[in-house]
Amino acid sequence: MPTGAAVTVARAGKGGCTLFSRLRKGDCPLFRTRRSPCGFTLAELLIVVAVIAILVALSLPVGGRAIDEANQVQCRANLRALGMAVLLYAKDNDGALPVSDVMDGPHPRLVAALRPYVEDPRPYYCPSETAPERLCTDANFQAGHIGYFYYSCDKKPANLLLSTFLRLDVAWPRRLYNTMHSRTWVASDAWFSGGPTAHRAYKKGVDYVTLGGDVQFLPETPREAFR
After folding, report:
1. The 3-state secondary structure of 103-168, one letter per residue
2. What is the dihedral of CA 122, 127, 129, 131, to 10 degrees?
3. Is the pLDDT of residue 203 over 80?
4. 153-155 and 206-210 as β-strands: parallel, antiparallel, unpaired?
5. Domain ranges in the chain?
6. In what order do the strands lie in the sheet with 148-150?
7. pTM across the whole model
8. What pLDDT, on a 0 to 100 scale, did the predictor assign at position 137?
9. pLDDT at 96 over 90
10. Is a pLDDT exceeding 90 seen at residue 75?
């Protein structure tokens, strides 16, 4: 003779829904949770979204720094190519480097003089530069607006945004020859008084190329190192 508990279980089995089968189906009222149709509660979805947002926010500075470092590598390669071009020009012109009008540009005379040595316009432009007049475009290149300062030129710069040091302390005109000191600056990233340079990871960092063909980077203000 079956006991009462056994009868209860047996009757539940005849109805096709034992306690264990209902647990497997997730249909037991004691264990039912309120979930969204996709299987997650609203709280769970919010947590997932928050975690993704935090990971994205953490990755942005790292990604930005990596891009800037890659641009710096390209910038140095551009300046090295530009330095080689002006030295080749000097070799063919009694040691004199090509002369531009003004250090901060535009530089149509420089671009015209180097045309036999630099066919691709990209070496004239820093990939980190964002100023419209220093971007690598056909219009800028045709007008002689390049992305770098060039230091063999006739006129004293008049741009008041430039460092007072460059406008007043440097002797202009400044004609460069390949017989001068090898550490003499030929070209560099653009830099202005009181403002950041193109390489945003550094407040005043600039790349520059010398008469010796070396390309160097200064993480701080270039004023003291300029020669």
Report:
1. CCCCCHHHHHHCCCCCCCCHHHCCCCCCCHHHCCCHHHHHHCCCCEEECCEEECCCCCCCCHHHHH
2. 50
3. no
4. unpaired
5. 75-218
6. 148-150, 185-189, 206-210, 215-218
7. 0.72
8. 96
9. yes
10. yes
